[in-house]
Structures are given as structure tokens and as C-alpha cells.
Amino acid sequence: MKKIFVTGGAGFVGSHCVISLVENGYVPIILDNFSNSKKNIIKKLEIITNKKIIFYKIDIRDKKKLRSIFKKHSCYAVIHCAGSKAVGESTEKPILYFENNVGSTLSLLECMRERKIFKIIFSSSASVYNLDKKSPLKETSELGNIKNPYGTSKYIIEKILADLSNFDNKWSVRIARYFNPIGNHYSGLLREDPNGKPNNLVPYITRVIEKKLPILNIYGRNYNTKDGTGIRDYIHVMDLAEAHIEMINNNRLKKGLKIYNFGTGKGLSVLDVIQKFETQLGISIPYKFAKRRKGDTAISICNPKKALKDLNWRAKFNFEQAVMDITKRIK
Questions:
Q1: Which has the minimum average pLDDT: 11-20, 191-200, 276-285?
Q2: Residues 6+ apart with CB under 8 A from 80
Q3: What local confidence, expressed as pLDDT, does residue 147 receive?
Q4: Which of 6, 197, 287, 292 has CB atoms 3.0–4.6 Å from 220's, for a disulfide?
Q5: Pairing, β 27-32 against β 268-269
Q6: Is 57 in a helix, a strand, or coil?
Q7: Looking at residue 63, what is its pLDDT?
Q8: What tens digit of pLDDT does each residue of 49-76 get?
């Protein structure tokens, strides 16, 4: 069975990729420093998959330790999910984001090259697009005019990977531009549960519902949208995990560079999202409006047609299913 390294494999997207890898006959190996995840995720993954999960606690910028791990295992490909991902925090700590996200990628690529492992799937983001342009966004839509250092770090890594593929034809590079992953595995064991105060809307809502936070802040009420709040394309994380499998299966990791958007093609505003949680749970969620956050944008919606054409992939789960999965264990 092929071994797939998953950097950031205890994180939100990475852990769900691990489930899909096991279900599809691969052996995932998690590399994670648990800076924004919890070690008990490993045990939960073992319960869900009924398999022993191989993992290493490592900051992948530590090349000495990373080399030793690569030497232990014959790796087929790497899914690179590791990295800091909070838009708001990145505007406050830009150097940290460049050092962590770009630095860790360079370290990983160097170790992969040394071991002659040339297949990589990179977790990128819709934030690399010029979001002032009209949605829905295609893979060929204009990049740049990025609103925050988080997005800039993803853009820089994409450029590094594109150059790598262009100038060294041994590499198979797949760039997965995520829109807004939400939901969790139907077991409810793997909820999005970041350390510290959530930056993303849905985990923020769940903490308010659980009374771990008193009120939901909505950042901005005067965007040029139907209700003045930001509109996003929300994709169920299990759909996103399956997208990674589709990039690997059927010998699709052929040499060269391919870029894919992964989203639903539909947008929901912040107030839409709140309303859907309220309707499904029969509750009222307290919220207040706050100033816009630096780095946020009005609208971001995906055009997912290329993934359908090339990979026969489409999102299967709707937002209501995501809410059901999220709230399964809320008491």
C-alpha cells in the first residue's frame, strides 16, 4: 500500500484527508507539531478508521528530523496541509506567517528532493485571487492584489511550486485552492476546534452556541452584498478530503503542474449562515456587528467546473448536512 505523508495531518483538513486516505487503501503518515491542533486527534482518527495511525510530532522546518523520518518510510506522495491559516492573525504577525508557511515548505521540498519524492499536493486558498474581481472565480482568474499576509504566503508558495515544476520536469505538483471548508466527519469526533479564539465563522458560531463565547462578532455590515455581510463559498470538509483522493487515484499525479478550485459554486452571507444554524437547531444566536477586519473581502465564490471535468469531482454535501454533522455532539 502506498504511503502518503500528510503535513499538518492532525489539523482540520489534514485529519479528514487521513480518513479518506485510509478508506481508499493508502497508508497516511502524519507530520504535525500540534501548534494549532490537539494530539488526541490521533486517537480519534484511530477510532474512526479502526487502524493504527503513524504520526510524528515535528516542525517540518527541522530538516534534520524531517530527513530521518523520510529515511524510515518509502513515501509515494506528500499532501502539504501544514501552515498557519488565520487571516486576522496574519495581519498582526506577517513575519511569522512568511517564516512558518514559506519556510516550512522550502524545508519540505528540499527533503523530498533528497529522497527523490517528487509528488506533492499543496493546500492553497482562494485568497490568492484578486478578490476585487467578479465571482465565481476560475483557476485562470487574476491573481494578486491580495488582502492579507496569509494569502500572500500561499501565493508565494504557489509561485515556488510553479517554478519547481517548470524548471525541473521530475515534479508532479497539484495546487488545491480551497474555498471555505466547514463541517466534519459524520461521527462528530473531528470538529474544527482551533486553539485559542476562532478566526473562522463556523467554529466561532459553535463556541457561541456552546456558551464558550458570549456573542458572535460579525466583522463588517456595509459590504456591497445583498445584506451587507461577506459572502463565501462553503465546502464540506469530507468533500474536500475526497478531492485529494481524486487527485491521487487513477495515476493522476502525473508530471507537471495542475491547479484546481474546490468549492460548491454557491455563496452564503454571514447572516445566511447564522440563519441556517438557527433554523436547524431551533435557537437564536446572539451577535453584534463590529468593524471590518483588515484583510477581509466582500465576496469569494468558486467556479468548480475544472475539477469536475478533469477529476470527475463535485461537492456532494450541502450546507445543511454540514450543520447536522457539526452540531451532532453539541449539547
A1: 191-200
A2: 7, 8, 105, 108, 120, 121, 122, 123
A3: 84
A4: 292
A5: unpaired
A6: strand
A7: 97
A8: 999 999 999 999 999 999 999 999 999 9
**pLDDT value at position 331?**
56
Q: What is the model's pTM? A: 0.95
pLDDT in the model for residue 192: 86
Degrees, nearest 5: CA angle 263-21-201: 35
Cβ neighbours of residue 166 closer than 8 Å, sequence gap 6 or more: 257
CB 172 within 8 A of CB 256: yes
How many residues are there in the chain? Answer: 331
**196, 284 contact by CB (below 8 A):** no
**R_g of the chain computed on alpha carbons:** 19
pLDDT reading at 196 higher than 90: no
* Domains and their CATH numbers in the chain: 3-182+236-263 (3.40.50.720)
Contact indicator for 17, 79 with CB cutoff of 8 Å? yes
Mean pLDDT score of the chain, rounded to an integer?
Answer: 95
Between the alpha carbon of residue 294 and those of residues 165, 177, 225, 226, the distances in Å are 33, 21, 18, 21
Euclidean distance between CA atoms 178 and 81, whole angstroms: 11
Four-point Cα dihedral 52, 54, 55, 56, nearest 10? 140
Confirm if 201 and 269 have CB atoms less than 8 A apart. Answer: no
Active site residues: 150
